[in-house]
Amino acid sequence: MRYSIFLFLATLFLVGGCQKERDLGPGFDLQYQQEFNIPVALNVFEVHHFQLKNIPSYYVQSLTQAGKTDADVVGFLTVKGNLGGIFGDADLSFVERMSVRVFNDNNPNDYIEVAYREPTPLDPGNAIPLIPTLADSKRLLTGSRFNIAVVIWLRKSPPTDTDVRLDLQLRAQY
Asked: Is the backbone peptide bond immediately before 119 cis, with ω within 30 degrees of 0?
């Protein structure tokens, strides 16, 4: 009898703990992939900023394709993100936490965090899935180009040069 009650409660907890994917409403998605290198032997006592500059936004083309105007778009939300090794053999266990920020050329201190991971898994393997934020990044993404800063805190020094790819999916909502 106790076993069946325990099984019922465990099932209820597991089923009740599942979250439905958030409904982002109507809009169009923009996909961005940027590759960069994390060099060997970085200092673990410093925060490392990898700036990916001059990324084409494709915002105007996507608006035209969707038959919308800039006034129709109410905001930009991050759908999902991932940092992974390009060649499939990267060990990203040296990453303690990370933040992905969109910023303006005129002022790198004026940024919006669009995704993060804190803390990262101890043994993430080749990829670290990112957690999307709820921040509206429309004011920085409606131009023809934008910049991304990947900020990484280390738990240990990278043992080798690591080529990685940042994948971001953002949604322009109507």
From this structure: yes
Give the tens place of pLDDT for each residue, 141-154: 999 999 999 999 99
- Side-chain-side CA neighbours of residue 113 (13 Å): 11
CATH number (domain holding residue 46): 2.60.120
Q: Round the average pLDDT of the chain to a whole number and report it.
A: 88
> Got the DSSP string for 51-109?
EEEEEE--HHHHHHHHT--GGG--EEEEEEEEEEESSS----TTEEEEEEEEE-SS-TT
Question: Average pLDDT in the 58-66 region?
Answer: 94
Q: How many domains does the chain have?
A: 1
> What would the pLDDT profile of 11-34 be if each residue is shown by its tens digit?
444 444 444 445 567 899 999 999
31 belongs to a structural domain: yes
